[in-house]
Amino acid sequence: MQPLRSSQRLAQRMLSCSQGRISAYRSQYRQYTQLSNSPLDNPAAKASAIEGAASDTPSAQETSPSNGATHKVMTIRRPLGARKAYYMLTGGVRIGTRLFEPVLLRDACTCSMCVDPSSTQKNFQTTDIPPNIDIKSQKTLSNGDVRIKWKNDLPGFGADHVSVFSGEFLHPSSDYTSVDIPKPLLKARAWNAEMIKEDIHFLNYEDYMASDETFNRALSELVKNGILIVQGVPNSEQSVEDVAGRFGNIRDTFYGKTWDVRSVPDATNVAYTSRYLGLHMDLLYMANPPGFQLLHCLKNSAQGGSSLFADALFAARGLSPEDIHTLSQATIAYQYKNAGEHYYYQHPVIESAKRSTFGLPSILNINYSPPFQAPYLKHSAQAVSLLKRNSALRNFAERVENPANVFEYKMQEGDCVIFNNRRLLHGRTAFSAVGGERWLKGTYVDSDVVESRVRVFRERFGTEKLQRDERDKSEEVSSTA
Amino acid sequence: MQPLRSSQRLAQRMLSCSQGRISAYRSQYRQYTQLSNSPLDNPAAKASAIEGAASDTPSAQETSPSNGATHKVMTIRRPLGARKAYYMLTGGVRIGTRLFEPVLLRDACTCSMCVDPSSTQKNFQTTDIPPNIDIKSQKTLSNGDVRIKWKNDLPGFGADHVSVFSGEFLHPSSDYTSVDIPKPLLKARAWNAEMIKEDIHFLNYEDYMASDETFNRALSELVKNGILIVQGVPNSEQSVEDVAGRFGNIRDTFYGKTWDVRSVPDATNVAYTSRYLGLHMDLLYMANPPGFQLLHCLKNSAQGGSSLFADALFAARGLSPEDIHTLSQATIAYQYKNAGEHYYYQHPVIESAKRSTFGLPSILNINYSPPFQAPYLKHSAQAVSLLKRNSALRNFAERVENPANVFEYKMQEGDCVIFNNRRLLHGRTAFSAVGGERWLKGTYVDSDVVESRVRVFRERFGTEKLQRDERDKSEEVSSTA
């Protein structure tokens, strides 16, 4: 059982790792190809010749920054009185009438020497860009693109290396990325019970599975309302996996890929009447709770047993800035210590992006699940005072649980509800299984998987903008409720 | 295809959600039982009578805080000049010679009324604890436990409700939780190449699978070094799942539950010689990159093709406090837009806990994977200036890639390496498949899963403390390398 130390076994197989080897490896960067189907690769990758491989030039020497850019510090007032110094560019390289930082531009080059066309991997490292890199020449093409040649380019990139940037990329409003930066809840329409009763969408199972337009609608609904219901789902234990499979791979947990919420009728045993189940989120005792949950109703002939949903985003948006700040700082611990597992994690109640957008706090996720709370830590282990934290938490809980904000819906056989587990709380009213049966089958999908699908479908179908009047309405209700 | 609005379908099945209903639900909290095998439940849960259910008292009225605790603000100097106000308790309820905050104590009660014994769910909400709760009586028992009865207890908890706290729980050094707060990298021994060559552990497959002592050793090695090698793994495509299965469920991704890194010999095609693969971490374009990676070597008769590993924690610990701060603030975006997927996420290079421990930054994860970097965002979208960020990143990259810090090991058939993907970078030297073959099969396991297993095994086998001399050695090398 005693494991052998490496020195006893390594001697004959360890290759010496001499100084300078890594640099030698690095000079091969722009040549390497990756052919396997590992996560490092495009599964469909094929070997491809890389342009310009025969024209390497000697490495440029790194020098201290001297590219002509000068910076001045500007202090910007931020919400809640915090101040932060930002650097404002007042120099740099000039393209047309505007100024750019050469290092950022060089880093963004996506030519086939810089980014492998088949694997989409980057063939150089940001840290290898010489700080004194500069533009040697530039030319605006007829289509508005700008072609740039470099002075003091990266080691291994010769005079033939040319970067081309689109007019869109260079536009003042561009932040150098085409990606919708993850801020899913910013695009959400926070709802109370009245609003969601009017707006919840029901999609037909056949359409959802077969039509990309319908599935795109489902994605939009999940971004906006964080909940939708697929109807007419076949009465099979496999179905919930099929519905989830539209997004991508399922999130497996120690509960299994899918799991059952089931009661069996037995009038003689009071235990088989299931009571009210308080509003909660699932699996907050993990660092990465599942982003989305699916519940497929296989049977619901019981009396009672309605599903409850509450939008924590609606509750959070109506809080005072002070309470939002407190709940962003204060963490609550969740724990599951049972049945051979011991999960434990502390989350802030409100997870915000570092920077706010348009003055609104950029809420990314909300974490609140009272039944799974671990004991509070002693106040000295917390960044926020107990009184402040409890007061903010009470204001938040009152809004979450306010009946005017709780959507109640009795699931029918064939319904599959899909909802955001990092935004909505869910629960269930009491029910009696006398003469009836209630059986839901559930599964999870990670936010990462759903967000990838959202991006791919947006690129295909275009972004669905929120109606301006809907957004206004949402903000109005949030601020007064 | 056009989905029907809720109002068209909901009318007949929507139950009215009247004011006050939630309060009524809530009064049932301490009575509800949960019988299914859903994630809300202990899979082995059985219905159980709950003590004291017949002795409810009317709700206490909430009043303003008046439990005798007074607070004064103390300003503590923190690293990097930041200051934060903490509240120091100078009042509260007295137990023995010490003072406690009644709300925290009440929240921590784990009696069978407060926490369901079978599901381990909490039966009340923190926000329902009246701020004026106080201790009615206390008694120290012969075993050192303290038994407390409450004044102004939670609604629904009668005079028979008694809380018992152990002497250990009430000890001044207790932070009210028995859990090892997630700070995995704090217990790590950061290594350079020389250190890991001496200390990497090889475990026998049969022992690893069959002996809990050996598996406990594996867990300790993963906490300490972040890497180990299991030897003698059967030459089957199923084996890597078996090795991973010791931790719990596998993390499925769009690459599949397991995936192949494979080259096929074909001397006529230069593409089938795989080149150097730069140091990287996997799947940083997800919000939740997998915590651990397994690679099982099925074939390695190729020339070259050694595996490379570098400990980013070693690199980070040797940085200046300013660089650590910069890399905790600066985010780098990662992207995978290929083959019908579009993943994108921004991570800080160094993910730290909010509070430092013993003056050391509490590094939780490190995120650095140059080949998958998305274009830098424009500087105005970043909290840290470009010059500062690039300088810190260059210092970090130089340390990560320093050959003295890179461990090189040629995997043998039957080896399965397990390593921390949020701490170590990995790569591969070039190899020629002429006359040989290289085939690794890989999979992932989430940090959550591994950490649960670590807690369960620690409770069983006790904590393995780092040898004091090892820790000293590690810190010494870190600070001078």
UniProtKB/TrEMBL annotation, chains A, B:
Residues 52-71 are annotated as: Disordered. The keyword Oxidoreductase applies. Pfam families: GBBH-like_N, TauD. Its cofactor is Fe(2+). GO terms for biological process: carnitine biosynthetic process. The keyword Iron applies. It comes from the Eukaryota. GO terms for molecular function: 2-oxoglutarate-dependent dioxygenase activity; metal ion binding. GO terms for cellular component: mitochondrion. InterPro entries: AlphaKG_dependent_hydroxylases (IPR050411), GBBH-like_N (IPR010376), GBBH-like_N_sf (IPR038492), TauD-like_sf (IPR042098), TauD/TfdA-like (IPR003819). Signal peptide: none annotated. Keywords: Dioxygenase, Iron, Metal-binding, Oxidoreductase. Transmembrane segments: none annotated. Residues 56-69 have a biased composition (Polar residues). SUPFAM superfamilies: Clavaminate synthase-like (SSF51197). Residues 203-444 form the TauD/TfdA-like domain. Residues 101-153 form the Gamma-butyrobetaine hydroxylase-like N-terminal domain. PANTHER family: GAMMA-BUTYROBETAINE HYDROXYLASE-RELATED, OXIDOREDUCTASE AIM17-RELATED. Belongs to the gamma-BBH/TMLD family. This is Clavaminate synthase-like protein. It comes from Venustampulla echinocandica. The lineage of its organism: Eukaryota, Fungi, Dikarya, Ascomycota, Pezizomycotina.
